[in-house]
Amino acid sequence: MKAYKSFKYSELKSVAILLFIIVLIQACSSTKYIPDYQAIVKKVTIDSIDAKFEEEAYNYVQKDIRPSSSFSINVPLYNLFNTKDGRYKTTDIKPFGTPPAILDSTLVEISRTQIEKFLKGKGYFQAKVTSNIKIEDKKAEVNFKAQPGPASFIRNLSDSIFTPAVRTAYRNEKPKFTHLHEGMQYDSDSLSYEREQVYRVMKENGFYSFLRPFVNFDVIETRDVKNVDLRMNITNPPNGNHKQYTIGTTYMIIAPSPEGFPDSLRNYVNRDTTRGISFTDLSKRYRRNPILRYDFLKKGEGYDIRNENLTYDRLYELNIFKNVKIDYYNPDSTSNKVNPIILLTPQKVMSNRVEGEVPFNGGTVGFNLSNTYTNNNIFRGAERFEFQIKGGLQSRIGNGASPFKDIYQRDFSVSASITVPRLLIPFYKPTLGSNGMPHTTFSSSYIYALQQDVSVRNIFINSITYDWVETKSKLHSFTPLNFEYRFGNLDPSIDLNTVQNNLYYSTLLARKDLTLGMKYTYTLNADKLNQLRTFVYLRGGIDIAGNLLQAVSNFNNRKHNPNNFLDADSLERDYAKILGLPYNQYIRPELDIRYYKHLGGDRQFVARMNAGVAYAYGNSVFMPFEKRFFAGGSSGIRAWQARTIGPGNYNRATLASDTIRRAVFGLDQLGDLKIETNFEYRNIVFRKFFGGVLKGAAFVDAGNIWNLNADEGEEKMLKLSKLVQQLAIGTGVGLRYDVQYFVFRFDIGLKLKDPQFSGSDQWVIGKFLSGGRDFKNAYNATHGPDTYRFLQYNFGIGMPF
């Protein structure tokens, strides 16, 4: 054991220092790996360009001659793994780092031409750009010098449109989108934007056959080089004016199998139509109405590309078709009707997925295994059925012991759900699906949770949930019915002292009750979470239970007061009951708000606050065990293991014995109020790393949980005058390995301030920097079997927030 500790604290530091020195040496010696006739580009500058265009102009410098940042370790890492015998490898290239920028005169000339073209597109029609290369000791500096000349401005703006209907549509919509106006500096990007918007407007107003090349611009020079006249032209097709089309009969055809369609469909198409739609299911697997509900191409309406895109999106979102194709045909060239043909290729609807995970933290390890069966078309109407069986265990680890030696928690669950792709409500309209697929979900689950030598809890949950999309950025979820029945039993072998010293927790764990309530959640900007931009994300929810049962109970004239016990010798409170069981009554709002700030490039800063309160009232004195909050964990205050902070200034040394501390581990550090804040800086470490991107993060977390019930102890209550003293603060760094669809995450959290201590002892960072061995030994002596860890390791999948 001593040898292990020696490696951990001394040899590990030596290895890290040695690796840093190696990388540093590699950074200083890139030029030795290239021949004498080559040079590495160390600097690229662009002179005499307006500051507002300088960054954009730099983007036209070819990437292969752009030097890396002076502080980047991508090139040193590439040198470390991709050099041999004093030269860069040409084969067996390892996916580490980025190669240095080797000077290439051809790429320099391409860059010069592109920068010059860029300046002319910004109105500097007489712009000239020259390049100059300076080489010394196989290191090159490239300078591009611009002579932009005078900028040209739009003097007169006009249009030439031959089809009257096109002219009317354009001029009606133009004020809503145009970037062009007289007096502005000429900008080719604004012209491209105008062309795209004209195309959009035409496709939204019935002009099915309209194409982008019909829109072009004439730039007319004037005597004054600083001014030009601009004319937009919308030309006609060769056969006459542009025509506006209406939708005729829609033919929707489903292929017989995932392999696709037969060579000819003519003999298979159903000629009978209902409400202007012919439906042919060659697979015989689908009902008509659930599919046609999301066809937005209606007979008699004008052609609108928005309805076409909407049909594409919703049919794909049904998750039963692997390919959706929409074509049109016009049986009569003189007619202004087009008949949509929607070809749908089904995908396999059944799947079985086995998943396993090993959640690991500094002090515990777990094993979870689940099997999920899915049928995406259980009732032939794109209804998704899921059945899952899941089991797991959690164990304390330490001192090299087997992870199966100290198992303190076992879980088992069975769940089933049916999700229907619509809102099953009386006033439902298909337009509710215009921004996203709505869903109605019926779910039922059973959960079995065993806390070793303490209790067994059984929970049955049944719910109905509606999910719908107001806009792409605004999501709603409403559960009008959430029914929960739970019953628990204390382990017959539990130590009497454990029960007497933890009466509050024992009461919660052994309680038999039911819950009838509703939930609502609103989410803003979830669609932007994977984008590098500046925005605010918000997720707010509320869980309310017991009010309806309270109203039913009030029909009984007898009044109940749960603050009173039934008799002096009983621990049972005077609860109102339904079906012989007390019911829970509470309100539980929670808010998660984040600010994402894009700092340029791949850099991002995130600030987050997660707060919630759980308040029991009426027929309840305490919150249900599962509804309480905890702090810490891989997505919270990452320097602490989950459920090991608080409440307030709570210290587990107050528990009577090691036996009790072991028994109630993970149960005694829950609260009714939670406030967590996180600040995280993110950037890319290596762009190429084993087929993915390796990103880094540095963070600071702070917060705690508190109780609202004074019966649990004054030190666990929130006191504004002692708020700072009750905060836990941690910091750390992390790595995120991004492989397109998955992000594997590893964080190391370091405790700075621990609220379980008092005074200056809360700043445990001082103990860590001074070695911390005496401090940890003293802690272990009074908190056994708990051990103190300054560092917390967190593994996870996906971003923490």
Q: Can you put this structure into words, describing what you see?
A:
The protein has 801 residues and is an alpha+beta fold. Among the domains are: 2-147, membrane protein fhac (Ubiquitin-like (UB roll), Roll), CATH 3.10.20.310; 153-234, Roll (Ubiquitin-like (UB roll)), CATH 3.10.20.310; 246-346, membrane protein fhac (Ubiquitin-like (UB roll), Roll). It has a 17-stranded antiparallel beta sheet that branches. Strands 9, 10, 11, 12 and 13 form a five-stranded mixed beta sheet that branches. A hairpin with a 2-residue loop joins strand 2 (83-84) and strand 3. Helix 1 packs across helix 3.
List keywords for this structure.
alpha+beta; Ubiquitin-like (UB roll); five-stranded mixed sheet; 801 residues; disordered N terminus; single chain; 17-stranded antiparallel sheet; globular
**What is the fourth-level CATH superfamily of the domain at 2-147?**
membrane protein fhac
Number of DSSP strand runs: 32
Query: Which percent range fits the helix content?
Result: 10-25%
Poorly predicted regions are: 1-13
**Percent of residues in β-strands:** 35-45%
What is the CATH topology classification name of the domain at 2-147? Ubiquitin-like (UB roll)
Global mean pLDDT: 87
Count helical runs: 14
Give the class-level CATH name of the domain at 2-147: Alpha Beta
The CATH architecture assignment of the domain at 2-147 turns out to be Roll
Main beta sheet strand tally, sense and closure: 17 strands, antiparallel
Radius of gyration: 34 Å
